[in-house]
Design brief:
Layout (H helix, E strand, L loop, with lengths): L2 E12 L9 H11 L2 E5 L3 H14 L17 E11 L10 E7 L5 E11 L2 E3 L3 E7 L6 E7 L6 H7 L2 H9 L7 E6 L10 H9 L1
Parallel strand pairs: 1-2
Antiparallel strand pairs: 1-3, 4-5, 5-9, 6-7, 7-8
Length: about 200
Amino acid sequence: KDVEFTCANAVWNNEKLLGDGINTKYVDYIRETFLAEYKVEAFDGNTVNEINDWVDKNTKHMINKIINDLDPDTAMVLANAICFEGKWEKEYEEYQINTGKFTKADGSTQDVMFLSDATSTYFETDKATGFMKAYKGSEYAFLAILPKDDSISANAFAKDFTSEDYEKFIKSALNEWDVYSKMPEFKSDFELTMNDTLKKLGDL
């Protein structure tokens, strides 16, 4: 009740390629299981605008654009939008907000805003350390995971951080020390082409 958390799903079917050739059981499944909107359209500029408008609406205008155009050979677009907005249980005070140097993955530095804090929950495994900071209501929390190997990028670390690594990390939680953290203001985006992955699934 103290945070806003929403999830929305939608599917756009390329009318020129698939038309009515989609298994109706699949359409019923995504509608009933994921409460997804399902649309059959010609993939043109109007569809691009419609997809971007849908994402903009379902992320409370935090993400206003995800695609620039649609390849006419694209058969289907599956979209999932998750929006989370919450206040900290213990908000940062003015003295905890400072500017400092941040070293990026390419080794260059940049002046950014940092949030400094002292919390009580500490995590540590052979691969990473971390801390947790609760959102208002304590039903959700921000979990920071810092690789022990500072020579690899965040993306490379995340790629090799398995579900077993994550479970081990979560179970390592201790509340025996004061944990001092310094977190930079950041934005994050990620892009992945699924062609090879989907081809592998097709070979199974």
